[in-house]
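Technical annex B. To support the medicinal chemistry partners, we prepared a structural model of the target in complex with 2'-deoxyinosine, based solely on the information shown next.
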Amino acid sequence: MINADRNDTACHRYTVTPMPTPLTQEDLRRAPKVLLHDHLDGGLRPQTVIELAEACGHQGLPTTDPVALGAWFRDNANSGSLVRYLEGFAHTCGVMQDESSLVRVASEAVQDLAADGVVYAEIRYAPELFTDKGLSMEQAVEAVQEGFRQGEAASGGRIRVGTLLCAMRQNDGWQRIADLVVRYRDAGVVGFDIAGPEAGFPPSKELSAFEYLRQQNAHFTIHAAEASGAESAWEAVQLAGAERLGHGVRLAEDIQGDEVGLLAAYVRDRRIALEMCPTSNVHTGAVASLAEHPIKRMADLGFRVTVNTDNRLMSDVSMTGEFATVVEQFGFGWEDLRKFTVNAAKAAFISHDERRALIQDVIEPAYAALAK
Ligand SMILES: O=c1[nH]cnc2c1ncn2[C@H]1C[C@H](O)[C@@H](CO)O1
Ligand SMILES: [Zn+2]
């Protein structure tokens, strides 16, 4: 900004104050983004839900108008309770019970993320939720992989997708999902997770599944410290051995001002990534409001913070939108967004060489150009 100092009529003196580079929505969209936490069954296009429901005879959609349906999902999600938030998934999983629907939903998800500027994504889902009409879990996994490959091809190679398979916490048989992760590792399945209601279903419910995965040199993240407090992050990290935490927002309970507790310090110092999902965290009541979200505090304290969508349909969000939201709320600039993106790339469940190439060849040059 150039300020003319006009006190002296004889001569004009000018001072130059550096202006922060404005972050426009279009630049945020163009910036390469890495997404580690996105649910396949939480990210359908409203129109696709309507068309698939019609085709398969799924009953009970609240409306068949796509705009109204999108609003319905958002209102349902914004409930302040994880259990209520999860109720909306009956309508998405209800229309994902055959191979062609799974291929379509998976392909569209990848194309939507690519159009949003996501260059690497890990998309997760629970295969056991797609078996109501007779599909095997293997058939479901293979159909989703086919859809992801189609979506990558349709996006002209602008995006790469890895798959995380979730076991539902409230169901037994986490081991069967762990087996699938190992079995399909060469087909693009890069890791494991447990999802669903957190309270009452801790990782210790079936610890042997995590032990098996570690013995198989497989990767896993765990939804933790979302509906339950910091102690659930302790179980995920210290009992199960999670490499990343889904959300992890309530780990902030172990931080008082600048005083970082032993557990939080362990998570920070071991560089365990926090897959934070700002809007979802407000919707499920994990944080009381966006203003109270610990993302900035924890980033400032050196945690490996990442920004994610969680459920694009349910919470009516995108990666570009979540970046814009935290920029507006916390005043983040390009350097912060670059850091979140590099953090996510470092924590991705792909090889070290691939992570380095993503950071050096894609992320760093693009953010250097954007910050100019
Ligand atoms: O934020 C979440 N916490 C716990 N479970 C979740 C969250 N978002 C989605 N899920 C559940 C609902 C889906 O059906 C399941 C697998 O994607 O994961
Ligand atoms: Zn989630």
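Notes passed to the chemistry partners:
Confidence is low (pLDDT under 50) at residues 1-11.
The chain has one domain: 24-367.
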